[in-house]
Amino acid sequence: MNSIQFHGWLDRIIQPFSFDNPQKPLIMGILNITPDSFSDGGKFCSIDKACERAFEMIAQGVDIIDIGGESSKPGALPVPTEEEISKVIPVIQQIRKRSDICISIDTYKPEVMRAAVDAGANIINDIYALTTQSALETVAELGVPVCLMHMQGKPENMQDRPFYSEGVILAVLKFFAERLAVCVAAGIKKENIIIDPGFGFGKSVTDNLELTRELKIFKQFNVPLLLGVSRKSTIGAVLGKEVEDRLIGGIALTVYAALNGVDIIRTHDIDETNQALTMIAAMTKVAPVADNKLF
Fold this sequence. Notes:
Number of strands: 8
Radius of gyration: 19 Å
Largest sheet: 8 strands, parallel
Order of helices and strands: HEHEHEHEHEHEHEHHEH
Distance between the termini: 46 Å
Number of helices: 10
Low-confidence stretches: none
Strand content: 5-15%
CATH class: Alpha Beta
Shape: globular
Mean pLDDT: 90
Strand order of the largest sheet: 6-5-4-3-2-1-8-7
Helix content: 40-55%
CATH superfamily: Dihydropteroate synthase-like
């Protein structure tokens, strides 16, 4: 999927959603150019390895490649802006030489946003939902689609006993209502906004499961909904599995999400996710059998 196709998808997806006829979600592939990400830290730190992984994901059916140069795992600390730019920009440039695949830049820093879009990125994915100084104005000026994520706290402290006095669902709903209003007032087109409830970002296991169970409630905003559950600790807590053994749990959550209104799945596991979503799409589009008599 290239940028033109993605914008066409955005135009279609904001039409009234039908749970009786869900569309196959897009697949956003995770490409962390970091030494300390919780699952794939250090695997793709060189330009060559990162690009090799990017083209492998394209071959497996990815729709969007989400490139990040700073880990956001629990306890992670910020990296200097120039260091982040030096990690992600050469990779974006190299991918662009060979492919028009849609690229997302996973950052909350305006300087990185601008440099990435200049290098060929098409989407901004911000875990701070444009609350960083100048981020709102930068995205409004750039005019590209943006994903707003909910997070309680910061990566370095977000999992220090997260708590929502009014309940996680109401807290996240209020957050998105406020951020959407702020973004539109700043000149960002609503049709360019995607929301992510932030599974694993300042939430307990119970919070994460509740958010996933109630995904349909977020469709009221009439913007695309993104979910990232891939290999996260909630799966490990439920199944008693280490990071490398959480694929089946992640696919189970992905299938549930696909049937409950999620429009984009963010994942490390492209091929397996694509197979699961393709199968679900085939099942939901099969015409009813006219005659099911056994004899």
